[in-house]
Design a protein that fits this description.
Radius of gyration: 27 Å
Number of strands: 0
Largest sheet: none
Number of helices: 5
Shape: rod-shaped
């Protein structure tokens, strides 16, 4: 299966190979796009992009998980409000809960 070769793939291929200028011009023109080496560069780029997308998705899930208040955090906040019996602390706690419910916005 052949993949699409980008100009960046061609330039990377040329940087790794000392080709005569007439061959380099053919590479830049896309005439060598079916050559195994260029296909390897293109496949590597495609896989790197996929790996980066997977890592971004994983990190987004991790951030989402970290932003969620845990039951222990909620209980601690409630206990702190009860312990302080302070309206200001209760107001701050309610604002924290509201922000968590609103996705932090």
């Amino acid at each position: 299966m052949q993949v699409d070769v980008t100009q960046a793939d061609r330039e990377a291929y040329l940087a790794m190979n000392m080709l005569p200028e007439f061959d380099a011009a053919d590479v830049r023109a896309g005439l060598w796009d079916k050559v195994t080496g260029l296909q390897a560069f293109a496949r590597h780029r495609i896989q790197a992009v996929r790996d980066q997308a997977d890592e971004i998705a994983r990190l987004r899930e991790e951030v989402k998980r970290l932003r969620e208040p845990t039951p222990a955090m909620i209980a601690a906040g409630q206990a702190a409000c009860e312990w302080l019996k302070d309206e200001e602390a209760a107001t701050v706690y309610r604002a924290m809960i509201a922000a968590a419910d609103d996705g932090g916005r």
